[in-house]
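We were asked to recover a plausible sequence for a given structure. The inputs and outputs are reproduced exactly as logged, with field labels preserved.

PROBLEM: sequence recovery
POSITIONS: 795
GIVEN STRUCTURE:
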């Protein structure tokens, strides 16, 4: 939707136009029913028989008539009003409706030429639905025009707002099922309108579809008194328009009027902001649509009410293959749409059916906004040299890694100021996570009042903060799926809140990779900071490194996990992640001052390897295998490992120690299990086959065992990590409580290197004594031991 006024609102559709809309809607309903039931005889050219029916009846009819109504009327305003549109179908199990409409408009056959827009193609459309080797019952990546799977309810509206951000000409219609409206994420999503800039962003038109029921119960919003529902929606900041009924022609007229009024109102609000100087937050229109569940389906089956009840949710006639009465009802139901008026003898839709359908890329199934890779441009990332820290000697200077990264992100934000295709989202933690340099290039998005005491708030800001991880995730997913770039910054422990959301996105990416017509999109990038080892001040509730475990369970071609140990490696990893496509990248990095270990060039080489030997940190001379391998992954484990290596160098100088650092966690997997995995020969060269390996890991130790369990040296692998021992304490006490500290690592070396225990008994005792001194010191002084707090690398 451009800034220009566009065509004036018509006085309303004529009787002829209403008849055409009804014909299109009836055709879509017919096709939706056919997909659920039929595997043959798509045009009903003969009476239905048992052999025409699928052996397994799957799918959801109840929501489909309402979705078909919305699709039909969106076609009308796209064609008659020049609206640039994208649709998000919240009741995603209404897949039959969206598939039906994309077939009617021709976008389905254009995407899948084997499924033509004729009788044979209709038969294929029917048979493939929820059939082995076919397509899912939900609106899925395989569905043209979709960006939202919808199988897991709650995220439609936040995806819609993410899609509208920085697409000023776009109207995103979002159909919200009244069952979905009961979820927590959807309830929070109504507040997204407080972040939508009417000047630079598009518009979202929510359609709350109240058909009264979910799978087995009534829904809350459908049973609210009308005045209470209206007060709720107006309280959320919307001006609702109401459409309802069960008589099709009157509903068509009401829906057409509501759509026209909504489009007019959107244009008025955008013109007021873009050319009239109105800086107030708009109260955007929305539509409340009340139609019966399973509308136009069987009113009653076996003496039990169906239409307008929860029983219409899935398959209203479940016994069609076994009951002649059900089979007769199905045929009567399908013929009630008068298919002979809708399709010609060859199965092609008649002109009246298609008279409301737009053409080309204006079709909802063909819009490039739903295939975001078509719109994606490379991100202008500046050279890293200007942001890297200088490292004269490892382990002597300190920087805050995420603050260093913040400088790079500011430069990216500045470079995209005109393009507006990069955003950073996070739950109220941008400054806390040391990324506040971003405010040198943009502010935080905010449409409400701004007080003199507020900082960095503006209508056009491209940093987005809201205290809902669900909204952050949904906004960014919608933004990426429509062709832009971004980063999600979050406290590590609370990334778990979006576990199931990232599941769905990973599945979407995995499926999309197998569809040649889906173009790659920018990766979903997480920066997890304020992590477990430096949440000593917030305590146990903020200490959980398990998001990484969750991610590494997922599709290996999609997921990547990086644990950069210092500022320069974080820059290198971030540069790679921001340039990548079709991945979910999880980067875990600290925000507190930490040692610099590698120069930028060393960091680049190390990150390219993903894991490697730090020769400068060990004491092996290359003449033989090391006596022990000290491995580490994560910034604090790296610090403790280097401190342990320093202690071994001083106390047991004859010991040949190898230090290995892992940045890319997937490198520990076999090559057969993950594209980044090491072949066995490479793993054996780094970790050896027989040498004890003491592995200090950022998260739960059993993850390392799971990743490496098939390696030859697994029996020699001993892992230290977080084991749910947390509280409010000192930073070093966190590692001591979890047996990840330098003294424990030295003790592990002495315990596990053959023959060393007897020779180094005094050293082991000294390490144990240091742990005892630590416990006494922190309880008296409230700070860590000076030998720990003031330590620097002396190797």
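RECOVERED SEQUENCE:
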């Amino acid at each position: 939707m451009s800034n220009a006024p566009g065509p004036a609102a018509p006085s309303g559709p004529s009787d002829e136009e209403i008849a055409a809309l009804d014909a299109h809607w009836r055709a879509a309903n017919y096709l939706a029913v056919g997909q659920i039931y039929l595997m043959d005889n798509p045009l009903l050219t003969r009476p239905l028989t048992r052999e025409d029916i699928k052996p397994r009846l799957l799918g959801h009819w109840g929501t489909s008539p309402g979705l078909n109504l919305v699709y039909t009327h969106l076609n009308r305003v796209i064609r008659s009003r020049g609206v640039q549109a994208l649709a998000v179908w919240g009741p995603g199990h209404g897949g039959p409706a969206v598939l039906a409409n994309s077939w009617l408009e021709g976008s389905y056959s254009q995407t899948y030429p084997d499924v033509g827009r004729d009788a044979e193609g209709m038969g294929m459309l029917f048979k493939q639905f929820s059939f082995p080797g076919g397509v899912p019952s939900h609106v899925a990546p395989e569905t043209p025009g979709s960006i939202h799977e919808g199988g897991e309810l709650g995220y439609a509206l936040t995806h819609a707002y993410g899609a509208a951000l920085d697409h000023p000409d776009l109207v995103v219609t979002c159909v919200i099922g009244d069952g979905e409206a009961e979820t927590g994420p959807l309830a929070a999503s109504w507040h997204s309108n407080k972040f939508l800039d009417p000047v630079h962003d598009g518009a979202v038109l929510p359609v709350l579809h109240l058909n009264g029921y979910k799978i087995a119960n009534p829904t809350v919003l459908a049973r609210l008194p009308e005045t209470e529902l209206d007060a709720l929606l107006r309280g959320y900041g919307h001006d609702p328009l109401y459409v309802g009924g069960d008589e099709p022609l009157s509903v068509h007229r009401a829906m057409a009027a509501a759509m026209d009024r909504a489009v007019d109102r959107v244009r008025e609000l955008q013109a007021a902001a873009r050319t009239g100087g109105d800086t107030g937050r708009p109260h955007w229109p929305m539509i409340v649509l009340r139609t019966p569940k399973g509308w136009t389906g069987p009113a009653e089956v076996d003496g039990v009410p169906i239409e307008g009840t929860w029983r219409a949710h899935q398959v209203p006639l479940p016994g069609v293959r076994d009951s002649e009465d059900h089979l007769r009802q199905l045929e009567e139901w399908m013929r009630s749409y008068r298919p002979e008026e809708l399709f010609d003898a060859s199965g092609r839709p008649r002109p009246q059916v298609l008279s409301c359908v737009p053409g080309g890329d204006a079709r909802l199934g063909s819009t490039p906004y739903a295939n975001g890779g078509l719109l994606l441009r490379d991100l202008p990332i500046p050279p890293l040299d200007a942001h890297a820290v200088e490292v004269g000697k490892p382990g002597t200077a300190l920087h805050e890694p995420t603050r260093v990264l913040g400088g790079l992100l500011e430069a990216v934000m500045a470079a995209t100021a005109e393009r507006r295709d990069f955003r950073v989202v996070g739950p109220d933690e941008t400054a806390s996570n040391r990324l506040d340099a971003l405010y040198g290039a943009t502010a935080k998005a905010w449409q409400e009042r701004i007080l003199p005491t507020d900082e960095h708030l503006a209508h056009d800001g491209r940093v987005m903060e809201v205290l809902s991880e669900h909204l952050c995730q949904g906004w960014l997913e919608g933004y990426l799926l429509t062709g832009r770039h971004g980063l999600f910054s979050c406290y590590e422990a609370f990334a778990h809140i979006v576990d199931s959301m990232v599941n769905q996105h990973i599945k979407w990416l995995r499926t999309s990779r197998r569809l040649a017509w889906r173009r790659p999109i920018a990766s979903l990038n997480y920066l997890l900071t304020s992590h477990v080892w430096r949440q000593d001040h917030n305590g146990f509730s903020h200490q959980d490194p398990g998001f990484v475990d969750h991610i590494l369970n997922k599709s290996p071609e999609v997921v990547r996990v990086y644990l950069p140990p210092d500022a320069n490696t974080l820059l290198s990893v971030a540069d790679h992640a921001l340039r990548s496509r079709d991945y979910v990248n999880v980067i875990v990095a600290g925000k507190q001052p930490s040692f610099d270990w590698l120069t930028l060039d060393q960091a680049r080489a190390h990150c390219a390897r993903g894991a490697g030997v730090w020769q400068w940190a060990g004491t092996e001379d290359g003449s033989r295998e090391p006596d022990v391998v000290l491995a580490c992954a994560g910034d604090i484990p790296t610090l403790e490992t280097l401190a342990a290596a320093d202690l071994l160098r001083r106390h047991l100088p004859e010991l040949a120690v190898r230090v290995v650092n892992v940045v890319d966690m997937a490198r520990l997997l076999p090559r057969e299990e993950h594209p980044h995995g090491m072949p066995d020969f490479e793993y054996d060269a780094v970790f050896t086959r027989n040498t004890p390996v003491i592995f200090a890991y950022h998260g739960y130790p059993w993850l390392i065992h799971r990743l490496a369990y098939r390696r030859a040296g697994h029996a020699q692998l001993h892992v230290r990590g977080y084991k749910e021992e947390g509280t409010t304490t000192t930073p070093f006490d966190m590692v001591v409580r979890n047996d990840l500290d330098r003294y424990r690592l030295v003790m592990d070396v002495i315990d596990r290197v053959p023959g060393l225990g007897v020779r180094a008994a005094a050293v082991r005792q000294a390490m144990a004594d240091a742990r005892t001194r630590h416990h006494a010191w922190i309880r008296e002084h409230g700070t860590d031991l000076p030998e720990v707090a003031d330590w620097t690398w002396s190797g």
